[in-house]
Amino acid sequence: xxxxxxxxxxxxxxxxMMVVPLLIGALIATFFPGTPxxxxxxxxxxxxxxLTILAVFYVCMGASIDFKATPYxxxxxxxxxxxxxxxxxxxxxxFGHFLGxxxxxxxxxxxxxxxxxxxxxxxxxxxxxxALMGQYxxxxxxxxxxxxxxxxxxxxxxxxxxxxxxxxxPWQTLVGSILPLMVGMLLGNLxxxxxxFLKRAIPVMIPFFAFALGTGLDLSKIWQxxxxxxxxxxxxxxxxxxxxxxxxxxxxxxxVAGVAAASTAGNAAAVPAIVAAANPAYAESAAxxxxxxxxxxxxxxxxxxxxxxxxxxxxxQPQERDKGTEEAEAxxxxxxxxxxxx
Length: 342
Prior knowledge:
Layout: H1 6-11, H2 16-31, H3 35-39, H4 41-47, H5 50-63, H6 71-99, H7 114-122, H8 126-136, H9 139-143, H10 145-148, H11 155-163, H12 171-190, H13 192-199, H14 202-214, H15 222-250, H16 256-260, H17 271-278, H18 283-315, H19 325-333
Helix pairs in contact: 2-14, 5-12, 5-13, 5-14, 6-7, 6-11, 6-15, 7-11, 7-18, 12-13, 15-18, 17-18
């Protein structure tokens, strides 16, 4: 039987495994809203099962994170992690002061919210970062994502919104948001076979929770949200890219790793729905924020490789040297995640 390259076609779209199923779900919800009720059973459950799928996803994601990181990885990854989260908190405080929890109700910025901005800034596209570092960086720079992967999930977004002075979350909710990731980390570090078993599921689950998220979106607002998403995506690259570039230079890098981290992860589009489920104060912002973040994923996936390539050409790539003990340990400590998983 002749094969149709469905997977390859989807992956040609930036963030395709997240964006394409999300749009399919949104199309069904917009033009055939009665589908889940009509079919019921497992089909209906898939339309409303985003949070359950995401809980499993974060266990598997956590299992891919190795505790054994070298000092270089901790320095590089920790610096990039701290800078990106710090920027998100600063911007969150500013937007939270003017917007609060609600989105902008009208005008060209309709739908923009503190939730959308913070979710776009908080989480780096790890697959994109690792692919770019594989081309323009060094193995140790690739390994820095071991620390940066702690950005995954809604926990830091919830913390950032609390720091911004907006509606806070009870400690049980905060712990619950990071618990699946931590359980996965524990399992993966106690048993390497369990790590290998769980991490293979990471890319598989992305299209399923993306589809479920898409079924809650209203495409009548997609054009306006798309234009905002374009602007928000450019803003993420600029606002985070410059400080990350400087931070990378200060830690002995060329700046390339910093620029490569100035993106938005595909699974960040899931964060608004999770945050709204945890605190109803953000329910009004969640739908538009999901569309905005999804658009930002696409925009940053296109821009960041271009800017990274330019940075490598202008400022140079890391000098290759004989692999010493530190770099060898970094390679051993790094647990790769598939480039399509984030």
